Amino acid sequence: MNEYDVVVVGGGAAGLSAALVLTRARRRVAVIDAGRPRNAPAAHMHGYLSRDGMPPADFLAAGRAEVTGYGGHMITGTVREITPTAPAGDTGFRVRLADGGLLLARRVVVATGLRDELPDIPGLADRWGRDVLHCPYCHGYEVRDRPLGVLGGTPETVGHALLIRQWSDDVAFFSHAYELTADERQRLTARGIRIVEGAVTRLVIDGDRLAGIELDRASVVAPHALFVRPRLVPADGLLTALNAVVVDARTGRTDVPGVWAAGNAVDPRAQVITAAGAGSAAAIDLNADLVDEDVRAALPFSAAQEREVAAILASVTFAHQE
């Protein structure tokens, strides 16, 4: 049976960062990851100091190599459930994998990320991460000064369009299924953002590029890239099953003793560099907790504990003699 000080669930920026800190602290660490990172469709990641423009796959490969270089174990798979093993007042967990594998851990870090739920528009998902984009801080500079579109749908998309105007003078807001208020129209117009009425029916793809956006009014508009605000759905099922709620946003400590959480699973707005920092902060706090436990285990019995053990041994001896 595999026993670890810490099992990290999720091998993205948050999980690998936590694992790196913990392995360097000489803890026995396993990282369980299914190999389906959120940013896999993107060719490059940006805004990460010293790693700007690095392909996400290369970033994760480098992180895995660093963790294994310090003795960490990488396990490909998914976690089915996490259950406490220790009595009340202590910590310890069984981490069961979908393939039936079982790991024991003194502590757990949940860094399972999130998924982007996209509008159901034909062609949109196929271009996700390429010329259908979400984060202007991640991709805005690469499409600067080009004709850009923003897909409407909620009040937040209006703010998204106003933000994206920072990168281009040519921005079109596709109202889609959203009814703009007079104030929103005024704000968009004041910033020189064109309002395109009508519902978007599909994306027109020519070869391997976005060639246009088709509307229900039989018209086609052709921006260079389309920005979309997906619904961010945290992959927090393991935390929910444990009834774990983050009680310290700074460290990711939850109200379940022995469980920490980091990255997009608990902070959907976190970018790669933010998630990595959260993983590091969680690992430092977690290791301090393990040190406290190690110290308590090393302390000699108190007089009261010695009397309690003596009483237990006496009762066992008496029962045996009977």
TrEMBL record:
Alphabetized GO MF terms: thioredoxin-disulfide reductase (NADPH) activity
Pfam family, one: Pyr_redox_2
UniProt xrefs under InterPro entries: FAD/NAD-bd_sf, FAD/NAD-binding_dom, Ferredoxin-NADP_redctase_2
Location of the FAD/NAD(P)-binding domain: 4-276
Protein's name according to its UniProt entry: Thioredoxin reductase
Organism: Actinoplanes xinjiangensis
Coiled coil location: none
Keyword Ligase: no
Keywords: Flavoprotein, Oxidoreductase
Reaction catalysis annotation: [thioredoxin]-dithiol + NADP(+) = [thioredoxin]-disulfide + NADPH + H(+)
Keyword Secreted: no
